[in-house]
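Figure 6 in text form: structure in, sequence out.
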């Protein structure tokens, strides 16, 4: 297939804009991309894109897409003055979603997740990460990961899974976090690895979740199985989680509102991506901004994701996350687009996507737009014209 008459944002270096570009697709891969004037001789179906913008397919590198229930009442509680910690300690928060998710069958989880996934695909997403973390038993964590794998078989999308058994301490282990790690989290890690269900291992390093020392135990178990790690870090306080993650060569550290320069330097040295999650910042009405300027100064790549979850980011719009990242955190539109393409790919350890270049996957998004800034500029309207996944345009 030969795509013609397109404004290409290749994202290979900066935006990599090519005003009158073309792309040759062969099978699932990009064979050539560049100015239409330099188009080599090629046979295949020609598709005139009418001057539309073409970007790499968007990548949502941090989601909790698979879950049951909602937490609308907690939204009300926070508006009435309750903090995130207040809600969690009152039996709400993550634990309330755990109850609903444990009670749901895999087919029920698939049905609800597919509805959310379809909204993401309609916004140009071609790859997303899905975390477990709402089961908190070995069987229920595996149920969530099996559901995530099933999503990738039912829709034209790449699904990357992360085992997040170190998400919260369930009520039956209250006050016994280390016992939970020994009896549930680490056994779940081994079981998920044995079944090929986990592409990475995640954790929540926070006062209401797990300490750096406890996360280190989980990461040691992941390292023994050669599984990459990532971490929810410095969202509500600074426990040094990002520096810990960097010591383990983490793919990413996520949230990072309370990140300090020591943690940033560690991330820069390790090549760990900073994943910025503005929807949670917005929903929790936080005021502590992540240190964007320091991340820039140290050359830490910044990804942007929805954090789609029922409690603090009930949002499926990655383009709205881009807008929020620009509006709240002052990312540039080019940085926001890099954050949902090449940097998001790096946050998932995927070198074969996130840019428009020969040899990479032909995962593309075609937009009714003329310039990449429009994707961050528009609020509540996604100008997607069509997607291409693995060399096939959506019907």
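Output sequence:
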């Amino acid at each position: 297939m030969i795509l013609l008459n397109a404004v290409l944002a290749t994202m290979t270096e900066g935006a990599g804009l090519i005003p009158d570009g073309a792309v040759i697709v062969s099978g699932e891969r990009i064979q050539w991309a560049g100015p239409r004037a330099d188009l080599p001789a090629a046979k295949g179906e020609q598709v005139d894109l009418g001057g539309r913008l073409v970007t790499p397919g968007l990548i949502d590198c941090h989601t909790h897409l698979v879950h049951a229930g909602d937490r609308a009442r907690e939204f009300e509680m926070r508006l009435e003055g309750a903090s995130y910690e207040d809600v969690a300690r009152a039996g709400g928060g993550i634990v309330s979603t755990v109850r609903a998710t444990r009670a749901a069958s895999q087919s029920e989880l698939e049905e609800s997740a597919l509805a959310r996934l379809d909204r993401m695909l309609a916004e140009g997403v071609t790859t997303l990460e899905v975390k477990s973390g709402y089961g908190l038993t070995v069987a229920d964590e595996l149920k969530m990961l099996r559901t995530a794998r099933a999503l990738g078989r039912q829709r034209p999308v790449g699904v990357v899974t992360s085992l997040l058994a170190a998400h919260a301490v369930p009520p039956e282990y209250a006050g016994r976090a280390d016992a939970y790690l020994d009896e549930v989290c680490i056994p779940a890690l081994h079981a998920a690895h044995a079944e090929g269900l986990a592409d990475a291992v995640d954790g929540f390093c926070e006062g209401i979740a797990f300490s750096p020392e406890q996360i280190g135990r989980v990461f040691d178990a992941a390292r023994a199985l050669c599984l990459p790690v990532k971490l929810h870090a410095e969202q509500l306080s600074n426990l040094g989680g990002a520096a810990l993650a960097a010591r383990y060569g983490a793919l990413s550290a996520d949230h990072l509102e309370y990140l300090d320069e020591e943690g940033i330097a560690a991330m820069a040295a390790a090549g760990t991506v900073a994943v910025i999650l503005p929807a949670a910042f917005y929903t929790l009405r936080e005021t502590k901004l992540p240190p964007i300027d320091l991340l820039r100064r140290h050359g830490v790549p910044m990804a942007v994701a929805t954090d789609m979850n029922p409690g603090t980011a009930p949002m499926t719009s990655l383009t709205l996350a881009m807008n929020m990242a620009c509006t709240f955190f002052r990312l540039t539109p080019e940085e926001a687009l890099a954050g949902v393409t090449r940097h998001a790919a790096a946050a998932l350890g995927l070198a074969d996507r996130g840019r428009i270049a020969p040899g990479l996957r032909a995962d593309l998004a075609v937009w009714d737009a003329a310039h990449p800034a429009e994707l961050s500029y528009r609020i509540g309207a996604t100008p997607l014209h069509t997607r291409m996944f693995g060399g096939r345009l959506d019907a």
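Caption detail: The CA atoms of residues 15 and 142 lie 39 Å apart.
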